[in-house]
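Request: When convenient, would you put together a sequence paired with its structure tokens?
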Amino acid sequence: MTTPPAGPAGTSSGRLRIALLAVIGVGLLLLGGGAAVALGIGRDEPPATDSVAAGFARDMAAHHLQAVEMANYVPARSSDPEVEQLAFDIAELQQNQVGRMQGWLSLWGLPFSSSDRMAWMSEDAHAGHDMSGGRTAGAMPGMASEEELAELRSLTGRALDLRFLQLMMRHHQGGFEMAAHGAEHAEVPAVRRLASTIAETQAVETTTMADMLAARGGAPLEAP
């Protein structure tokens, strides 16, 4: 696949890339660069399968994979280089983060999926009280439905660009909620740091997508 050219520094895509590079650079320094999976993970007792750290890694990886799927619909269908660049950046970054989270789960000897999806966010098993503000366990915030994914696959040109921005913006809003909780409550420091980086990145990208939608005459969907 040919990498789309980076947008000029004055465009919203160019500003986004500069902001993301700063966020990612800080995250890499905190995580120890390429050794982030191996260092700081596994030296202590691995987290339990029902812990915040393990639940976050499992569910954020699944959440990210849908974002990668949606972003991969864009290159062959979009008419807008700035939307193509945004989709490429999201797919590349989130696929890398999926690999890191699944690497942790493998090192911990824990499964990549669980029937108790989102339980880590809906209830603090140690304190015994609700941490979600009433969110139902199992609900993945911001995820597109199968019908919405099918619709996105059917579109091309400007219609595809607008719908992608709407769905991805809502997806990021849900991901931010998950990442913020992981950054505060995960038992493993490296997981908290990655969750914090994800929250910062998704906040930047959400603002950028709101601006891109407005510039193209679109409106965001209701937040999750």
About this structure: The chain has seven helices and no strands. Confidence is low (pLDDT under 50) at residues 1-9, 22-39, 124-136.
